Amino acid sequence: MELNDPIYVAGHRGLVGSAVVKKLTALGYCNLILRSSQECDLTRQAQVEDLFAETKPRAVIVAAAKVGGIYANQTYPAEFIYQNGVIASHVIHTAYQSGVERLIYLGSSCIYPRDSSQPIPESALLSGPLEPTNRAYAVAKILGIELCRSYNAQYGTRFLAVMPTNLYGPNDTYHPEN
Q: Which of 5, 88, 147, 164 has the largest CB neighbor count within 10 A?
């Protein structure tokens, strides 16, 4: 990638996305595409398509997600599975349609079974029941991973899913209930 190649960072205001923007900027990348959820609602396919048509990204980093703690995940499971599932579907499919060269999708360590051996091998995916407190979120993240695998297999894309094991830092949100 060239330093002036357009790179779209979805979720640039969140914990991971803001760290990615900071690192890319420090490395000299100068054509970052940054849109808030008010500017581009990733749950709306047409808005995602319009963004990609307008900005023509060569690379995409998908750090956007509806996130929350145990209380929020247990109280709003439909919102977590729907919003995260459609964000993954819309962004990954539009990236393919738009000829994006590379995509990184951020998964979550919660995709692994609750009782996995430690350290958790990648092969443990789908080998047992998920943690019930965030199952809907985990299933949506598994969808994003499988979308990357499937698009790579069928279309020869270079879409990569990565699993951060644990996250904390600037721009994290701490709410006692959510």
A: 88
